[in-house]
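Record type: monomer structure entry
Structure origin: computed from sequence
Chain ID: A
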Amino acid sequence: MRRIFPGWLLVGAVMVALMLCGTTIVVSTFGIFTAHWMRSFGWSQGAMAGSLSIFLLSTTLAVPVAGVAVDRFGSRRTAIFGVTAFAALLAAVAPSVGSLPSLFLFYALLGLLGAFTNPIVYIRALSAWFDRRRGIALGIAVAGQGLGAAVLPPLVQYVSESAGWRSAFHLLSAGLVLIVLPLVLLFVRDDPAALGVRPDGGVRARPADGDAAGLTLAEARRTGAFWIILIVFALFGLVNYALSGHFVYLMLQRGVGTLPQIAMLLSIAGASMIGGRVLFGWLFDRYPLPLVGAAGVLCGVVALALLLGIAAIGPAAFAMSVLMGVAMGAETDLLSLLVSRYFGQRAISRIYSWQNVSFLAGAAGGPPLFALLLERFSDPTVPILVLIALCALSVLLLLLLKAPAHAAAACP
């Protein structure tokens, strides 16, 4: 019987790990938890939105440290630390949340430790194990975030209703310790050569091209591609988190369904993110990255356009959720692939951390900006049109993107 290439076991382990990574847990459950906190403590949506921004800002601060840790200690050891520390935080600190200051502190800590569980921790190992199949491998692995986004909202809603929201945090912590940590210990390896195999499962060494060597961080910063990607992902972060941070509140305020129905829409978006990541991962291996990425962003534009006219749960709401998930899946795959293909392996985690910081900085500004626009205008039409315009700008920038000379041969 033919032996399974260990790289695919790594992909499976990372997929499960990213179901419960810091960003997946916080973003996919934020609307559910805020609805329960509003009932329990009477906190306003605007006040609680600040905790999401604090989470994103603290993640932004921690991501460069995580990038250095991965380049120095490897994906495996960094992941073990991150999963263990994040699980302990969920179990120990969540029950003490009872005031807005304690909520803000909790989300700041979630951001600091959650950065060590996010995709940046695994990108280096995945890129080492896969070359020609890197797009599909990364697409399957990061589909775990979509799977988490599909499963966690209804699960957290059910547990919060039946046993209280604190029990939901305990369940998330248990999942990290009992499921994610063993998979990391068993299957996450940084170097395929240590197991006597080559990238993609081949028997010959990969050619010594620019993708294998790549640029230093200083060299990458001197390219136009670096700064275009930086701006594009700041826009992605702003749009995605502006919408996700207020989606539940927006739908409830407009009378579009009950909380369980809205949780179902979030679950549909998460499931679609899985399909979107696998589909776009396959496309990224075959067609130019900027063109495929632009197509993914346009899916988000259509989703936002549908959101403008939704007044009840129905076909339009389901279509919106599907397209929203597909767009988010495409954008997440695009970041890791652009970094690995355009700048190579040499300093991939450090370069990725810069781009990830850009994404998170945009994400941190998204919820308060959208909240400000919602307060300024009588309905959400203008705020949503602003998001559409930002998506259009990101498409234009992607189409202007050209590969650095060293990576031209490696880019698909």
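Annotation 1: DSSP finds 16 helices and no strands in the chain.
Annotation 2: Residues 45-93 form the longest helix (49 residues).
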